[in-house]
Amino acid sequence: MAQHILLNGSVRTIKAGVNADDAIASLQAKGHTVEKIKSPPGIKTLERWVSEGDCKATDGCRCDPDGTCEHGKKSWLLVLGMI
Q: How far, in Å, CA of 59 to CA of 68, rounded?
């Protein structure tokens, strides 16, 4: 299963066979803003969130579509540039 990170505000997939924690540590050492995130949602899920007025943040918490969760993680709609 692919692992994902948020690298300087963009969703990136970690290559198969690469340890995500090592990749994150290496990128952070180079001054990048990096966090491990859950897999991006599909388009049908994003459409449903827009119609329902509810969303999930990159860590899986519920939040407003144009906001952040209680942990400060942005909504998927914000991260993917849909809002």
A: 10
Q: Are residues 44 and 82 in the same domain?
A: yes
pTM: 0.83
**Side-chain half-sphere CA neighbours of 50 within 13 A:** 12
Percent of the chain with pLDDT over 90: 88
Average pLDDT of the chain is 93
Same domain, 54 and 75: yes
Read off the pLDDT of each residue in 18-44 and give the average, rounded to a whole number: 93
Q: What is the token pair recorded at 49?
A: 């969130």
Same domain, 56 and 83: yes
Domain that holds residue 5: 1-37
Using an 8 Å Cβ cutoff, are 49 and 56 in contact? yes
